[in-house]
Design brief:
Blueprint lengths: L1 H7 L10 H10 L8 E6 L2 E10 L13 H13 L17 E9 L2 H17 L4 E3 L48
Parallel strand pairs: 3-4
Antiparallel strand pairs: 1-2, 2-3
């Protein structure tokens, strides 16, 4: 929990966590267990952690139709899959089979990249077609996605304060994928 707090402490809407709160999160989240949390260590020092949450345990998202870009991407992946393991782009009327990455914490981006590659390989072996996380458009995490097929999804975040005098600062915003 210490590294999670250190990673996100300078972000608006981030609330510090503790080992106890992390354990409660794991216990109360359907389809999530300690097996879903990967820790990267070197000589006892925690360098990163990355959790993955199977969304199929709580919801199903079915593809209604694919735009031309996704159709072409699906065709290209079908070709490349003949030579190496690759995910599939779901076809119309198929459900997305995806993992949400949470929590995310890292000492540096190389540590995150190492964890991301490990979780991605685990996802491919389990037939997971997509892994995702939520971040701002120019977040440093995106630098770790070199070599991955990346599809950005535009999101609008609307925030209304419920307390008088509480304002969001001009810092980057933290949004956990589990809150979607």
């Amino acid at each position: 929990s210490e590294l999670i707090n250190k990673t996100w402490r300078d972000y608006d809407l981030y609330g510090a966590t503790s080992a106890e709160a992390l354990a409660q999160f794991i216990n109360r989240t359907p389809g999530y267990s300690l097996d879903n949390l990967v820790i990267l260590q070197d000589e006892g020092e925690v360098l990163g952690c990355l959790g993955f949450w199977d969304w199929n345990q709580v919801m199903r998202i079915t593809v209604k139709e694919r735009n031309l870009k996704m159709q072409i991407m699906g065709l290209l992946l079908d070709i490349v899959r003949n030579f190496r393991p690759m995910p599939r782009v779901p076809r119309p009327n198929e459900s997305l089979n995806q993992w949400c990455l949470t929590p995310i914490a890292f000492k540096n981006l190389q540590c995150f990249a190492t964890l991301l590659n490990y979780v991605n390989n685990k996802a491919l072996l389990r037939g997971i077609g997509q892994i995702f996380f939520v971040c701002e458009r120019h977040h440093a995490l995106l630098e770790s996605l070199k070599g991955f097929i990346r599809v950005d999804t535009l999101m609008h975040l609307y925030i209304k304060t419920i307390q008088q005098g509480v304002l969001i600062e001009s810092k980057p915003v933290f949004v956990d994928g589990i809150d979607l």
